[in-house]
UniProtKB/TrEMBL annotation:
Residues 70-94 have a biased composition (Polar residues). This is Lymphotactin. Residues 65-94 are annotated as: Disordered. It comes from Nannospalax galili. It is found in: Secreted. Belongs to the intercrine gamma family. GO terms for molecular function: chemokine activity. Residues 7-63 form the Chemokine interleukin-8-like domain. Chemotactic activity for lymphocytes but not for monocytes or neutrophils. In thymus, mediates medullary accumulation of thymic dendritic cells and contributes to regulatoy T cell development, playing a role in self-tolerance establishment.
Length: 94
């Protein structure tokens, strides 16, 4: 069924039922004697899951895409600055 992870971030068992992706805030990958993906929920729970399970791979991909979409929205567009400089040069006749 899966267990909440103690502070040491060591999984004792793996969740077999899918976790709704909208409840997942982030994740880490645990290596070692028991490989696992540890999902951190928006409520602060830590859930261990089998990294080979298809629902886990899909959830990881969704979280990664969500994170990269947020990053690209907050980064300034370097091309925007170049366009405005170019426009100014055109208006001044240079």
């Amino acid at each position: 069924v899966g267990s909440e992870v103690p502070e040491k971030r060591i999984c004792m068992s793996l969740r077999t039922q899918p976790l709704p992706v909208n409840r997942i805030k982030t994740y880490i990958i645990q290596e070692g004697f028991m490989k696992a993906v540890i999902f951190f929920t928006k409520r602060g729970l830590k859930i261990c899951a089998d990294p080979e399970a298809s629902w886990v791979r899909a959830a990881v991909k969704t979280v990664d895409n969500r994170s990269s979409a947020r990053r690209s929205m907050t980064e300034p567009n370097p091309m925007g600055t170049q366009r405005s400089t170019s426009t100014a040069a055109t208006l001044s006749g240079q």
